[in-house]
Amino acid sequence: MSKKNKPPRPEPETLALPRLGVDSHAHVDLADFDADREEIMDRALACGVARTGNVFLGPEAYLKNRHFFAHRPEVFFLLGIHPGEADQHSPQAQEAMRQAFQADPRLKAVGEIGLDYYWDTHPHDLQERVFRAQLALALELGLPPVIHCRDAFDDTLRVLVDAGYSGRRLLWHCFGGDDNQARTLLDHGWTLSIPGPVSYGANEALRRAVAVIPLERMLIETDSPYLSAEPWRGKRNHPALVGFTARCVAEVKQLPVEDVWAATGENARTFFNLEDI
Ligand SMILES: [Zn+2]
């Protein structure tokens, strides 16, 4: 079939979702959005995304880019050093993060932090030290951690349990595992955030996991600009597209999309302790 005959992808506006949803995890401060950041955030609101969690990858990015959202009260902040940048961690960076969290009430969680053995850019012992230091910071601040885990499930679990996080408020970002892994995380009392790849044809295992995750323990996210849900797979992701992830979750759970939208939005407000705006 020629490209010309392909039907156009439906725009997120066609989902007609009320302004109750939350994108729990996006990187709208990245340069990918320099040309149209304002339009992208206006569009999220127009598509029913009431709040967006912007994840700053380290204290420098936070200090440099937070002004993008000075006039955007719908954006709340996360801040942490990603395992792919573990060598950016230092006592000075840890102290810069502590000061940022103490000064800025818009910072709601320590993340994304964790272990990444897929890209495996840093030695595992370094990744683990940096992860543990930031878990300790989250505990000290009384804020939840948001976990990045790629091909490192057993070690991530070991560190979290060892650090005393079983039964504590914790979000497992971009969950991509199967139903057994989901049950393990649920047993520890944690919340799981479901990304766009749940909609990909080959991801039957993740859909089986979504089927066993109670709606009240679930958030949804874009991880913009990465990992767009169908029908936007392969294109730049942005917060307005999180509605397609809600639609896929709703199909799996055989619920109206509006129910998934409102429930995951409310869960995010509770999890991140978001004030009304
Ligand atoms: Zn991320």
Characterization of the model:
Strand 5 (145-150), helix 5 (153-162) and strand 6 (171-172) form a beta-alpha-beta unit. The chain is 37% helix and 17% strand. By secondary structure, the protein is of the alpha/beta class. The N and C termini lie far apart (48 Å). Helix 3 packs parallel to helix 4 and helix 6 runs parallel beside helix 7. The longest helix has 18 residues, at 124-141. The protein has 9 helices and 8 strands. Strands 1-2-3-4-5-6-7-8 form an 8-stranded parallel beta sheet. The chain binds zinc ion. The site of zinc ion (ZN) has 5 residues, from loops.
Coarse morphology: globular
Q: Bound compounds, please?
A: zinc ion
DSSP helix fraction: 25-40%
Distance between the termini: 48 Å
Number of strands: 8
What is the residue-mean pLDDT, rounded to a whole number? Answer: 97
Largest sheet: 8 strands, parallel
What is the H/E order? EHEHEHEHEHEHEHEHH
What is the number of helical segments per DSSP (H or I, 4+ residues)? 9
Q: Largest sheet, order of strands side by side?
A: 1-2-3-4-5-6-7-8
Give the amount of beta strand, in percent.
15-25%
